[in-house]
Amino acid sequence: MFALKGTRIDEQRRIEKMWIWYHRLVLFCIVCGLCFSPQFTRVSSTLHTDNGHIYSNAGRTLNQDGGGNHQIHCSRERSRAAWKIIQEYLMPFVEKEKYHISGSCKIHPDNDIYRDQEQHKFHIDINEWQCGYCKKSFYEEKHLDQHFDNRHSSLLNLSQSQCLADVCGALHCDLEMNSGSKKSKCNPPAAARNKHLCESLADSCFPVNEGPAASRLHEFFLHQFCDAHSCTGSGKPFSRGRRKKTNVFYIFASIFLVILLLLYYLYIYLYQRGMKRETQMLKRISQTSRKKKPS
C-alpha cells in the first residue's frame, strides 16, 4: 500500500510538472506572437476636396522665389495615395499582360516627383522611420516627410518629374484617403472633368493601336477607374479588383493555433499514458498482495 501511495504521489508530481511546462510554453508562444505580429500604422493627412471629387490641377503649384530656387507645392499625401492605387489596382494587371508603360504616361514611376524619396524611406519599427539618405530616424512618417522637404529637396528632379497628385481626380484618391468618412454629394461638373482626365490617361498610357495587350489594358482602365466618374451610380471604382495580399498576421495565428492543438493532444497522450501505467502498477500490486495471503 505504501508503494501504491508513493506511486500516486510521483505520478501527481509528474503531471503537475507537465502542466507547469505546458503553461510556460503557451505563454512563450503568446509572447512570440505579440513580438512578431504585423504592426499597422495609419498616418493622418489633411485633404483638399471639392464635393468628393478632385480636379486634375489641384495637386500642385510651382513657384519661384527671388533667388531662383524652385519651391514646389505638390501634395505628398495625395501623390502617395495615387501611387498606392496604381500599385494595388493597376500594376498587377499590367504585369500580367507583361506590358511596359511608356515614359510619356503620367502614371509612370519616373513621373512621380517624390518616387526617389519614397524609396529612401524605411519603416524600421512602429515608432521609427529612417531616412535612407542620411540615416536619421524619426518617430512619425510626417516628420520624415518634413525632413525630406527641409534637407533633401535639392534631390527632387523638377525638370522631368511631375506631380502624381495631378491625376488624383482620375484615380479616386479621395476614396482611398477618406475610406472611413461619409460619402459627399456628387458634383456633376467635377465628375465630368475627372472622367475626361481618366479617359485621356487611358489613351496616353495604353494606346489601342499598340497591340492586343495595350487594347485590353485600355478597356480595363476604363472599367476600373473611368466608368465610376458619374453621378448616376452606374459604376463603382476599382470594380475589377486589386492586388491580393498575404496577411502575415493570419498566417502566424494559424501556425500558433496548430502548435496549441499539437501541445494539447500531446498532453492528452501523456496523461492517458500515465494513467495506463498507474493502472498496470495497481494491478501488479494487487496481484502481489493476493499471492502473499495465506491459503
From TrEMBL:
Residues 129-153 form the C2H2-type domain. The lineage of its organism: Eukaryota, Viridiplantae, Streptophyta, Embryophyta, Tracheophyta. Keywords: Membrane, Metal-binding, Transmembrane, Transmembrane helix, Zinc, Zinc-finger. InterPro entries: Znf_C2H2_type. GO terms for molecular function: zinc ion binding. The gene is LOC113854766. PROSITE patterns: ZINC_FINGER_C2H2_1, ZINC_FINGER_C2H2_2. This is Uncharacterized protein LOC113854766 isoform X1. The chain crosses the membrane at residues 21-40, 248-271. It comes from Abrus precatorius.
